[in-house]
Amino acid sequence: MKEFNDYFTVILEHEGGFVNHPSDPGGQTNYGISLLFMKNLSLKDGDIDHDGDIDGDDIKALTVEDSRGLYKKFFWDPLHLEGLVNEELKLNIFDHGVNAGTKTAVKLLQRILNLQDDGSIGNMTTTAANNYTGDIIKEYKAAREKYYLDIIAKNPRLIVFKNGWFNRIKTTKFK
After folding, report:
1. I want to staple 67 with a disulfide (CB 3.0 to 4.6 A). Which of 14, 31, 86, 163 is the partner?
2. In whole angstroms, what separates CA 166 from the centre of its chain?
3. pLDDT in tens, 143-173
């Protein structure tokens, strides 16, 4: 059975270090943690450089260990993946949660399972996912692709991220 750090290692391979892409609505990003995300946190969680505010300096100051803590607290734990038995599914949900938000990641799964898409994994979602007889990984990855195509259709300037998003989907797996 895999642990959080096994999943985090795969996610970190996708995220890399500091970037400040002009088309990224999240703004400055380091290890996959964006300034937009950080600005929604308390000073306790987001003021990495301890200067009393959350700004680009905090993004630049982020370490791998800081990001590990943020991923665990704000992405992994809220997803409640512990009941799912399929490790690749858990990885893909976690990966999409990091990139698109945890509720969005769960809603994609719930739609595949023909459940009410409330964005929260509970007993019904866990049971349905664990008993699913189709190729849930293939279907989840296809749902992710559709999600990004829909985003691009609504905001065409985001097409610059399409290849990266699709490559991320393709390579989200354990080695």
Report:
1. 31
2. 14
3. 999 999 999 999 999 999 999 999 999 999 9
Tens digit of each residue's pLDDT (9 = 90 or more) over 72-88 = 999 999 999 999 999 99
What is the DSSP code string of 22-36?
A: TT-TT-SEETTEEHH
CA atoms within 13 A on the CB side of 135: 5
Q: Which residue has the tokens 């200067």?
A: 51
Quote the pLDDT of residue 25: 86
Rounded Cα–Cα distance for residues 31 and 48 (Å): 14
Taking residue 72's Cβ as centre, other Cβ atoms within 10 Å add up to: 14
Cα separation, 32 vs 13, whole angstroms: 10
What domains appear along the chain, each with residue ranges and CATH number? 15-70 (no CATH), 80-175 (1.20.141.10)
